[in-house]
């Protein structure tokens, strides 16, 4: 019973997002009096929370290591964009029609990404550690290569002309849903299997747990949420390009999970916020003329900061910033 108020709150936020989208006629209005630049950063935070929380189910709770999350995001982004570009006005141009097609597009993007996760997960998740990371990295490059050579998806030119349907409410409503699903699943009786696989896979198998099933399920769910995040990204930026889903995008999400704490939902949410704001802050620092040239040069290269941050973190706090903090369900 204790979970019902939380579930009702999530549903209320989603209904508010739908109502906002319908009343605006399907457009994506910014928050009043908010600078468009800050609004862009805010949407980026919500999308990165979805990506990081989803990947945390694989890398944190299940103990696997995936480097192909950007590939699933790309699959969802292009699938949802293709649907709205092809059938965006098939139901009419009213608020309800555009809202309906947008919801369907996001769901399609998630399903396509989940199917891709299943395809790569079934044959590869019997692997462990570095071998699994290499396979998922290769899958990321395969997805990018397919898009780059498909004229229907814009190929190397990129895909533009996408309607801007993503709003603040849609982004954070779906981020809340992602957090709720992952936390509820992991803290359920069934979800304890994910933790068993992470803690000792051999012991889990000896107890009769189908470890491959749990790993594939985690992979599929993470891919689904990455696809939804890709759909939100496509319908906010209005233009997508294969290079926007390259290896470095996967690394960014992995860094969020490691920095926040493997297996800590609260931690990865905080890290997603921090690492979305940090590049913009460094960009600002790089243009402060009174600072030394060497400091501005470092600020322009965020990967140097990321590398130093991770090295310092691994030396001082290997479990991550919030490794011991998690979101748990309270029992009635």
Molecular structure report:
Helix content is 70%, strand content 0%. The radius of gyration is 20 Å and the shape is globular. It contains 13 helices and no strands. It has 332 residues and is an all-alpha fold.
Would you kindly provide a brief summary of this structure?
By secondary structure, the protein is mainly α. The chain contains 13 helices and no strands.
Characterize the quaternary organization of these chains: single chain
Q: What's the gyration radius in Å? A: 20 Å
Got a strand count? 0
> SSE order, as H and E?
HHHHHHHHHHHHH
Please mark out the parts with pLDDT under 50 across 5 or more consecutive residues, or reply none. none
Count, helices: 13
Mean pLDDT: 81
Query: What's the story with the biggest beta sheet?
Result: none
| Sheet/helix structural class | mainly alpha
Shape estimate:
globular
Strand content: under 5%
Measured between the Cα atoms of the first and last residue, the distance is 6 Å
Summarize the topology.
Elements: H1 4-23, H2 36-61, H3 69-87, H4 95-124, H5 129-148, H6 168-186, H7 192-199, H8 201-206, H9 211-237, H10 247-260, H11 265-285, H12 293-300, H13 302-316
Helix pairs in contact: 1-4, 1-6, 2-6, 2-9, 2-10, 2-11, 3-4, 3-5, 3-9, 4-9, 6-9, 10-11
